[in-house]
Design goal:
Largest sheet: 2 strands, antiparallel
Order of helices and strands: EEHHHHHEEEEHHHH
Shape: globular
Radius of gyration: 21 Å
Low-confidence stretches: none
Structural class: mainly alpha
Number of helices: 9
Bound molecules: zinc ion
Length: 217
């Protein structure tokens, strides 16, 4: 379901994932949950994505599409570390001229550089300008600083990452609770979620609903 206006898609990009340049599989809502709209520094939008980019990030409560894109790219780098390391360990020529023998290595030589270049292209891909109804979408600054507990974080997302690590929070639960109660109650969100450090996808939803009930929402 498209809840928001879809960004304009130039003809040449009509089948392309905005995040990585691969073929698109779906149109996603950003933000994922209505409750996150209040955290956004720009209007909510819909945009084309491949299935992998759409599913790779489990947390929510991003402050902008750029922050979300950064998280996707980081996750792609981690997931495809092996393929990307080909480019660090070899140059194209070394690979072609290498004397290593064996049928497994021949197969590797044939496909490795191609796979590396494809993955590198996805990581470096920049999308196209975000335009809705002939108007360019303004995304203020990637880093609107966020203060919590006397510390100024470069962004809300940085503060979230820090809190998840420091307080051993369940990332998906914390970001959903945060988006519902608002970033002004960042400390409350931590306190509520600290009680549930290890969740499964099965009980996360019921814990989330319990928390909402406990604070009268
Ligand atoms: Zn993609």
């Amino acid at each position: 379901m498209n809840r928001y206006p879809v960004i304009e898609i130039p003809f040449n990009y009509r089948a392309t994932c905005w995040f990585c340049g691969e073929p698109k599989d779906q149109i996603i809502n950003f933000p994922k949950y209505n409750s996150e709209e209040s955290l956004l520094t720009h209007s909510p939008i819909c945009l084309p994505s491949c299935d992998e980019c759409a599913a790779i990030i489990k947390r929510s409560a991003f402050s902008s599409l750029y922050a979300y894109r950064d998280a996707i790219k980081k996750a792609l780098v981690v997931k495809h570390q092996k393929i990307l390391s080909i480019g660090s360990n070899w140059t194209k020529q070394e690979l072609a001229e290498s004397q290593l023998e064996g049928s497994a290595f021949e197969g590797f030589k044939r496909s490795a550089w191609f796979m590396f270049e494809m993955m590198q292209g996805r990581i470096n891909y920049q999308g196209w300008p975000l335009v809705i109804a002939n108007e360019k979408l303004i995304i203020e600054s990637e880093h609107e600083s966020f203060d919590f507990d006397g510390v100024t974080y470069v962004s809300l997302d940085d503060a979230v990452t820090h809190a998840v690590k420091t307080f051993h929070l369940d990332e998906q639960l914390f970001t959903r609770v945060l988006s519902v109660i608002g970033k002004d109650k960042f400390g409350n969100a931590i306190r509520l979620c600290r009680l549930y450090p290890a969740l499964t996808s099965k009980n996360r939803e019921s814990v989330f609903l319990d928390i909402l009930e406990s604070i009268g929402l």
